[in-house]
Amino acid sequence: MTGSLIDFCKQLEPTSLKLPEPLLQSAKDGVEFQQHFPSTRDEAWKYTRLGRVAALILTPVKINQSPERLPTSDTIDIVFEKETWQCNEPLDGLHLKFSGDLDADAWNACTLHGHVQHINALTAQGGVAIHVDANTILTKPIRIIHRLQGENTAVILHHQLVLGDQASAQLEVIFEGTSENSYANVLFDFFIGAGANLHTDMLQQIKGTHYGFHTQRIYQQKDSTVALQTLTANTHFTRNEIEVFSQEEGTHTQLYGAFIGRENNHIDNHTYVHHMAPNCTSDENYKGVLSDKATGVFNGKVKVYQDAQKINAYQSNKNILLSDQATINAKPELEIYADDVKCSHGSTTGQLDQHALFFLRARGISEAKATDMLIKGFMAEIAGAVKSSHIQEALHALLD
Amino acid sequence: MAGYTEEQLAKDLENSEYQYGFVSDIDSDVVPAGLNESVIRLISSKKNEPEWLLNFRLKAFEVWCSMEEPEWAHVTYDKPDFQSISYYAAPKKAKKYESWDEVDPELKATMAKLGISLEEQQRLTGVAVDFVIDSVSVGTSFKAKLAELGIIFCSFSEAVQEHPELVRKYLGTVVPMTDNFYAALNAAVFSDGSFCYIPKGVRCPMELSTYFRINAGGTGQFERTLVIADESSYVSYLEGCTAPQRDENQLHAAVVELLALDQAEIKYSTVQNWYPGDKDGKGGVFNFVTKRGLCETKSKISWTQVETGSAVTWKYPSCILKGDHSVGEFFSVAVTNNRQQADTGTKMVHLGRHTKSTIISKGISAGYSQNSYRGLVQIQKQAEHARNFSQCDSLLMGSVCGAHTFPYIECKNPSAQIEHEATTSKIGEDQLFYCQQRGISEEKAISLIVNGYCKEVLNQLPMEFAVEAQKLLSISLEGSVG
Q: Domain spans of chain A?
């Protein structure tokens, strides 16, 4: 079938996922309530217009598992390409499944919040469910590659990663390819067990007039650690939503992000950290470089619940504008209901330091080269947090 | 702060129930409750207004009818029923005074209780006061002296009669009636307020002050202040507010417009102490105010506010930095206790080149209160080399209150430099320990630390206000420790 997103919401039911009925109902109500698409009067969409997305005529991509396995390599590969997904041989303690095969109980712990998640719940066409047994330390990183192509396609996926207690894993998520007038809505649920440790690097780099919506929901249990790096470069339209639920004591969350926008790119980063339990820390650092007519949006929220004492939350957002036409809209928010906390945020916007540029040029370095050097230096903090060598190389290539 | 000793503080803390909660028995002229076109016509005719002003009101009413009450603020309250409020209440004999001696003694006593007796003010401090009770101005002091310099400082209705050309030219230029729900409501029903005009090149020799008080029950206060500082002039303007203690919620929806023409400077200070409601959040004033200033070339507007009262506050004194090299400043201390809610902050809109703005906001929340900072810094395309610095700190006292920060930063020019920082914490245990170790009681230590925390803002206030503000701070926070 072909149609607009709203047509899918009405006609694709039930989705290929077995979501529990209350969850589906709340998604339906949500879509109805916002009259299908939120406008810029909606606080969460103040700086991002969805008119073009609403007007897209799309064909949803049905996903099936390919019977063939990928050759073994240094990484556990999971590749989504065209209408199939395939993977190579998993390790001991690691289980891969099609997320459509999970039963409804597997989704019980989910919460739904906002337009992107509602659309996903109603129209998801599958995804991968990764399960890591308790006390397993994966020796190879898991790499999920989304290769998007074609015109007027809608790729709507819902992935799930369950990390057992004391388990440890490294994940790379890559979005690449060229795609015109297309839509992607990819959602990850991360369930992190007690004492578990997850490191995720994500790279979004899709060419063409592609509208990408990415959601990461992270549910953290006692003493778990999560680090998530999100890099978005030169994409036509990207909206990232990260929600962290720190549900038990002693968690640490690190959210780093870099966004590089050119031409008329629109890159929107929303993060929302819920500190629901005491003695937790979170550290957020987002950096953006915008040139040409690009627009960047950063909205970081930290909410500290009433009984969540001894929270240490930090949030930083720094932006560089390289052209007269570039725009940045930043909104770092704190919502705090407990008193014994240390929460702070900082946000700066400016251009490259003229003195630093002069210093380099006085030493015979061209202006273009000097600019590149300074931007590389600016991004070094984020690049340094990325573990995946593949993504690090891609980032260096972008900044050169 | 020289004359204010610890003993006095202790005394103040003892009777720290809302001390302005009395009702003055002044005969009021109250219009029946409800809002419709005929009420607006009635207000207008009572004030003997010219037709253009009536049309302005009717237009605003039409706009207001098509608007909805805003929901975005981080506050919850029962929406006022706009049909059960009386939109006009004036002390009956208001218009008759020829000189100060003829003023109703009851009214004089009210002022004395508020500590702003006009006589005393005239004699001792040299502050010119315009006293507005239930939104009608009842007395302005020092008029003659100001008139010598060409300064016009009078009630709004007087200005409408005597200087209609100025009022007509500037009314609604900074805050248009379509701006927001409460600004439209105010434009339709405002009953009085203060008007001030400083001519070219004049430096106003004394502080101008307005004191607002809601007195009659079941009324709303809708005053309108218009301050125009002509080229190269300077004025410092103070505003104070109190209301009687009542179980019902009273509505206060004021509009303040400031105009700083080329190279002028306006300093606007507010100490807001409307009745905040009792410990359980019963009663109190809803304070929904629109304040905005327009800066022309090389001019400066500085807002300083100390907010301790009101059950719900919704207030964003803003600056439109239109002229090149203009400067906007915002200094704020907002204290909430018990069940109070405040959503306050500022907007700095940079339009001109080389414009500068500074925002210093200090929030203190105690008890069950919610205190939010909401601010916008907007750099437009043509605002080359704009500069902004914002700092908003929140202090939490007690484990059931909330402190929130919602800054909006919108930048469309690469040469702009914007910095924003915010922190939230409680009073350091080490600081408290240090004080207590030196024999200072916990309560006093906290008062000391809080005053130090607010010093940056309090220093911006004129002397008399700074003392009052400091007292208010201690009183508002009394009993919130432990």
A: 5-248, 353-400
B73 touches chain A (CB under 8 A): no
Q: How far is CA B26 from CA B109, B442, B475, in A?
A: 11, 43, 28
- Under 8 Å between Cβ of B272 and B476: no
Distance from CA of A355 to the nearest CA of B (A): 14
- Binding-face residues of A in 43-102 toward B, CB within 8 A: 43, 47
CA distances from B4 to B10, B124, B307, B469 (A): 11, 18, 21, 12
Partners of residue B46 on adjacent β-strands: none
Distance, CA of B469 to CA of B457 (rounded, Å): 10
DSSP per residue, A178-199: EEESEEEEEEEEEEE-TT-EEE
As given in the structure block, the two tokens for residue A344 are 């702070």
**Residue at token pair 């315009």:** B130
Task: Assess B418–A contact: CB distance below 8 Å, yes or no.
Answer: yes
CA distances from A279 to A120, A276, A310, A340 (A): 33, 10, 5, 10
- pTM, two decimals, is 0.81
Contacts of B405 in chain A (CB under 8 A): 332-335, 345
Q: What is the pLDDT of residues B13-52, one digit of tens each?
A: 444 555 555 555 555 666 677 788 888 888 888 888 888 8
Q: Is the peptide bond before A60 cis (omega within 30 degrees of 0)?
A: no
Q: Please report the ipTM that was assigned to this predicted complex.
A: 0.79
pLDDT at B460: 80
B407–A331 CB contact, under 8 Å? yes
Alpha helix (H) residue ranges in chain A: 5-11, 21-33, 51-55, 115-123, 354-362, 367-385, 389-399
Contact (Cβ atoms closer than 8 angstroms) between residue A332 and residue A284:
no
Closest-CA residue of A relative to B385 is: A350
| Chain A residue numbers touching B394 (CB-CB < 8 A) | 334, 336
Tokens of B376: 């916008």
Give the C-alpha separation, A7 to A14, whole Å: 13
With beta carbons less than 8 A apart as the criterion, state whether B245 and B215 touch.
no
| Non-local CB neighbours of A330 within 8 Å, separated by 6+ positions | A297, A298, A299, A317, A319, A347, A349, B407, B408, B409, B410, B411, B420
Per-residue pLDDT of chain A (400 residues; tens, 9 = 90+): 777 777 777 776 556 777 788 888 888 887 777 667 888 888 888 898 888 888 888 888 888 777 788 888 888 888 888 888 888 877 888 888 888 778 777 787 888 888 888 888 888 888 888 999 999 998 889 999 999 888 888 888 999 999 999 999 999 999 999 988 899 999 999 999 999 999 999 999 998 899 999 999 999 999 999 999 999 998 999 999 999 999 999 999 999 999 999 889 999 999 999 999 999 999 999 999 999 999 999 999 999 998 888 899 999 999 999 998 899 999 998 899 888 888 888 889 888 888 999 999 999 999 999 999 999 999 999 999 999 888 888 888 887 7
Interface of A with B in 273-312 (CB under 8 A): 306, 309
Beta strand B249-252 with B284-295 is parallel
Eight-class DSSP state of B84: S
Distance, in Å, from the CA atom of B93 to the CA atom of B12, rounded to the nearest integer, reads: 35
Interface probe for A, chosen from B411, B418, B430 (most Cβ of A below 10 Å), is B411
Residue A132 in contact with residue A163, Cβ under 8 Å? Answer: yes
Going from N- to C-terminal start, the domains of chain B cover 2-476
Residues 343-362 of A with CB under 8 A from B: 343-351
User: What residues of B are in contact with residue A330 (Cβ under 8 Å)?
Assistant: 407-411, 420
